[in-house]
Structure formats: C-alpha cells, structure tokens
Design brief:
The complex is a heterodimer. By secondary structure, chain A is α/β, with parallel strands linked by helices. Chain A folds into three domains: about 20-225, Rossmann fold, CATH 3.40.50.11540; about 235-320, Ubiquitin-like (UB roll), CATH 3.10.20.600; about 325-415, Up-down Bundle (de novo design (two linked rop proteins)). Helix content of chain A is about 45%, strand content about 10%. In chain A, the strands form two sheets. Chain A has a four-stranded parallel beta sheet, with helices on both faces. A four-stranded mixed beta sheet of chain A has the order 6-5-8-7, covered by helices on one side. In chain A, helix 13 runs antiparallel to helix 16 (about 390-405). The longest helix of chain A is centred in the C-terminal third of the chain and has 18 residues, at about 345-360. Chain A is globular and about 75 Å long. By secondary structure, chain B is of the alpha+beta class. The radius of gyration of chain B is 19 Å and the shape is elongated. Mean pLDDT of chain B is about 90; it is low at about 1-5. The chains are: A alpha/beta, B alpha+beta.
Chain lengths: ~425, ~150
C-alpha cells in the first residue's frame, strides 16, 4: 500500500495552520537542508530524479543547476500557482490545505539556488488560495522560517504573493514573469531562458506548486528513497486529478507509473452509471485522448509519450459511452481560442478558426470539406507558434478527428 | 508633448496589476478616471495601462452587477451537466432573453468563464469571489431564489 507523501496532511482538520503542520513533522527538512551546502542539495534533487509537475516534466535538478552560482548575482524563485489547465485542481488543494509544505519547499529551493527573494504568482480566481498564502507566509515570518537569518543559519529569504488577473497563458513561465512585471502576459522568446535572464532581467527559477512540495521530502528521506517510488525514469509520487464521468472525482496521490485503469476504477470508483468508457484525457485538456484499449497504460512520462499522448499535469478526464465527441472537441477548442494571447498569427487565427469550424459542425451547420479544413488548421498551427499553446490546442483536435472521424462525418450530415 | 518616451521604473510597473485591482475596488470598475489615476500614480501612459488591463479577464471596464455570476464552462463541468446547461438554467431563472447578459434591475449578470480548477466538485459557478460547487438543478434554483429575494 502506497503511503501518501504530498497529500499526507490534506484532509487533517486545520491542516492549513502552522501548528498542525509542525505537529505532523513539518519544517523538519528545513534545518537539515540549511546544514548542507547548496551544491549538495542540487545533487540530491538530481539523484532523486524529480521532474516538474506543471506539465513539461523537465528534470528539476538540472533546472536548478542552470542557475548561476555566483553569490554576487541577484536571483529569484517564482512559485507558479496559476493552475488553469482544464481538469487540473491539485495545486489549489495543496495551497489551500497544506500551504506550509509549499513554503518549506520554496525556502529549501531558494537556498539551494542562492535566491533571497521569492514570488508567489497565484491565479486571480483563487481567492481562498490567496488568503491561505498570505496567512501562511505571515505565520512563517513570525516563527522565523522566513525573513533574515532563518533559524540562525545566516540565510535570509523574503516571500510575497502576487495575484494574476485571469489569463491561462500566464501559467507558461515566461508569460508569468511578464505578468509579475506588471505587463500583458505574453510569453518571451527563448533563449535567453529564465535561468539566464528572467524576472527583472535576473536569473529566475520557476517551479510549479506540486514540484516544490516534493523537495522537503527528498531532503528528509533521501534521494534514494524518492527514486525508489515510481518508475526508473519517472520517479516519485504524483497527484492525479480525476474528473468527468466518474463516481468519486478527486485528487489521488499514487506513484508515477500507476496504471490508468487502477486510477479510474480503484480510486475514482469507476464510471458513473456503470457506463463503458469512450475516451480518457490523461493529462489535462491539452493532452490527446486515449481509448479504452489503452487503459493499462502506466501513468508516467515515457509510457504516455509512447501511447501518443502526454502526462501533462496528471489531470485525468473520463468520458463515458454515449458522449458526443464532436461536442467534447468543440469545448476543448473553444478554451484554447479564448486563451490564445493573440501574439502570433498561427495561434491567434488558427485557434479561432478551429473553434468556429467545430462549433459549426457540432450545431449541424457543417460543410463538406470541414474535416479537411480542421486537419489543415492543425497542420498550420502545430510547430508553428511562438509558444506551446498552439500545439496544446491542435494536438487534441487532431487526435479526436483520427479516433472519431465517423462521428464528425455524421455530424456534417446532421447534428446529434 | 515630449517626443521622448518616459523611462519606466520596473518596480513601479510591477505594481500595475495590484494597482488595477485597488482601483477597480474603489471605483467599482475601471472607469476612465480610474485608469487616469493609475497611470498618473505609476508614471505610465493611460494607453499602456489600458493595454495591460484589457489582456486580463478579471478587470471590468463596465460597472459590475451586484451579483456577477460566472458559470464554469470547463470540460469536466460540461460533462457533468454544468457549463452551457447550467448557464441556460440560470438565464431562464433570471428571465434573461437571448443576447441579454444582465437583468433589467442591474442586480445580476451572467457569463461563462474558463475552467475554475474545481473539476472534482463539478458543476460549479462563481458569484463574485465565492465558488458554489456540486450544483444540481435544484441546488441552483434554491441558490438563485435566495439571492433574488434579497
């Protein structure tokens, strides 16, 4: 039986309070980390195999290693709480129910990369989450976990909360940096990467909330213990957000590599009304759908790539038999059309056209040739946009067209 | 007008999103006057302030209704009979005609918003800053009845 790591405190009464966090062994990794050198910590995270949980799965230790080590250079750490990938609701739970676990992760991470200033960027819609962040940070200052000379170590860190204002694209790290600078949240050209020139032109490390939550556990229990969870290349625990047509939607923490079938049937209670599964979105609405014959796919970075999809944020959306897939695809396309930042034409125009065409097909106004038009639009978007949003918009449409072509054709003849 | 562009103070510029929230709270919405004040305080041109404000969905250029209802249109809510069906129910209950997004008395406005990251409690909607979850048709009715009586 897998013992929860990241959600171990969630659901405990008062888990958001500092006293409850302390009584459950919280802030014990911090003094251990401060007793080590930054280089040792970076090495530990590298050996743990931790990879980013925000969608891209980039090795965290390597990302830390990109930061310049010269102490004379001002560096920043940013905490990405801009959770917006449809189907994802894990960071919200982590921040609302265990904010001190995130803060402990932020302090250790900042110490390891030599940052004395860290910024939380939170989605504007997360009003409760923001209040939790503010309170938790104030309490951490009061107990000496933040501020000058943390626990008498001589190391200091300041942390503050910044509220976004409604824009999915700000979850992309360079767009988030622009937004933190008070600008329109449009992604920046890379290179330079944030580790070279990020917030206010300084080297910046941006991490997702769930990623940071792993850090105290790696320090306390060791990288070998951590690497023993999951698969050789996808290590550690992962929170899977299960929603859609399931009996028990919710966040389930399991080792990476847990089979999709187990997540849906053992943990989320199976499909509502005992229906068969028609399709599953494995990692948030930007990841291509899987079919019922792929339910034994292990949920890790490699296996999902092999299955033609992505782990993404680990947001599993289950779609039951009897659902109109043209309608589902239209809904996904509309999201991306709404969230395109408008900077580059293939994305701005392409996502709009995808959504319009799908809307037309779904409502029975489809024209002959619309399916070729959709395929051509995907072709014109994928790999041709300034940031990954374009690919995220085109990939699910393309997959859906491949898998359910008959349904789309029937729709062009008449709406369902 | 000086032809040279004013050099910005990055720290001041970084205050813009927060300043816009404060202005919106004080003025009720980002009126012409609110934009002018923010730009004067931060040393930015009103165009720059507007350009940034218009990028984000949580800033209102028009006065808000007392109850701003935002129905989550996310895929998970959509699959759980929320999103468009929930929006339809809300609109019907408030007596809104097609194309009308605000009640005549100006107390309620209805719009759809993208995923609110609460898919485990779908279907959801938000009223001002509060999230209402697991909304069956009955629960939605009861919620709106309560607000309409106020």
């Amino acid at each position: 039986m897998f013992e929860k790591v990241l959600l171990r405190n969630a659901g405990v009464p008062g888990s958001e309070r500092i006293d409850v966090y302390l009584s459950r062994g919280g802030y014990q990794a911090l003094p251990q980390a401060l007793a080590r050198t930054p280089a040792e910590l970076i090495d530990m995270v590298k050996r743990s195999g931790l990879r980013g949980r925000g969608g891209a799965g980039f090795p965290s230790g390597m990302k830390w290693g990109f930061m310049p080590t010269d102490p004379a250079i001002t560096k920043y750490v940013c905490v990405n709480t801009d959770e917006g990938e449809p189907g994802t609701f894990k960071d919200r739970q982590l921040v609302e129910q265990d904010p001190h676990q995130v803060i402990e992760g932020v302090i250790i991470t900042s110490y390891a990369v030599g940052a004395h200033r860290a910024f939380v960027y939170i989605r504007g819609e997360f009003f409760d989450g923001m209040k939790r962040w503010v309170k938790a940070i104030a309490d951490a200052y009061e107990r000496g976990y933040l501020g000058r000379d943390i626990l008498g170590s001589g190391y200091g860190l300041d942390l503050s909360v910044h509220r976004g204002a409604g824009a999915y694209i700000c979850g992309e790290e360079t767009a988030m940096i622009e937004s933190l600078e008070g600008k329109r949240g449009q992604p920046r050209k890379k290179p330079p990467f944030p580790a070279q020139a990020g917030l206010f032109g300084r080297p910046t490390l941006v991490h997702n909330v769930e990623t940071l939550c792993n850090v105290p556990h790696i320090v306390q229990r060791g990288p070998e213990w951590y690497a023993g969870i999951g698969t050789p290349k996808s290590t550690g625990p992962k929170i899977f957000c299960v929603s859609g047509h399931v009996n028990r939607p919710g966040n389930y923490e399991l080792p990476l590599g847990a089979p999709l079938r187990e997540i849906i049937f053992e943990h989320a209670g199976g499909v509502r009304g005992g229906r068969a599964i028609k399709a599953v979105i494995p990692g948030g609405s930007s990841t291509p759908m899987l079919t019922p014959d792929q339910l034994d796919t292990p949920m890790d970075f490699e296996s999902l790539a092999q299955a033609g999809s992505m782990l993404g944020t680990g947001a599993v959306i289950v779609i039951g038999e009897g659902t109109c897939m043209v309608d589902v695809t239209r809904r996904i396309a509309r999201f991306f059309a709404h969230e395109s930042c408008g900077y580059c034409a293939p994305c701005r125009v392409g996502t709009r056209r995808l959504a319009e065409t799908l809307e037309r097909v779904e409502t029975g106004q489809g024209r002959p040739g619309d399916l070729d038009l959709l395929a051509g639009l995907c072709e014109g978007i994928q790999g041709r946009t300034f940031c990954p949003l374009g690919d995220a918009a085109a990939a699910p449409v393309r997959r859906s067209l491949e898998l359910f072509r008959g349904e789309f054709e029937a729709h062009i003849r008449s709406a369902c | 007008m000086s032809p040279t562009r004013q050099v910005q103070d990055p720290a001041k510029r970084a205050m813009l999103l927060t300043a816009l929230y404060i202005a919106q709270e004080q003025y009720g919405h980002l009126s012409e006057e609110a934009i002018q004040r923010v730009s004067a305080r931060l040393g930015l041109s009103p165009t720059e302030v507007l350009s940034t404000a218009s990028f984000y969905t949580l800033y209102n250029r028009q006065p808000s209704a007392r109850y701003r209802i935002q129905v989550c249109a996310g895929l998970s809510c959509h699959l759980c009979d929320g999103a468009e069906s929930l929006e339809r129910q809300v609109r019907q209950k408030l007596g809104l005609a097609e194309g009308q997004d605000r009640t005549k008395d100006g107390r309620f406005s209805v719009e759809t918003v993208e995923c609110l990251a609460a898919c485990d409690t779908a279907p959801n909607l938000r009223i001002n800053d509060e999230l209402f979850a697991r909304l069956s048709p009955e629960a939605t009715d009861a919620l709106l009845d309560r607000l309409m009586k106020e």
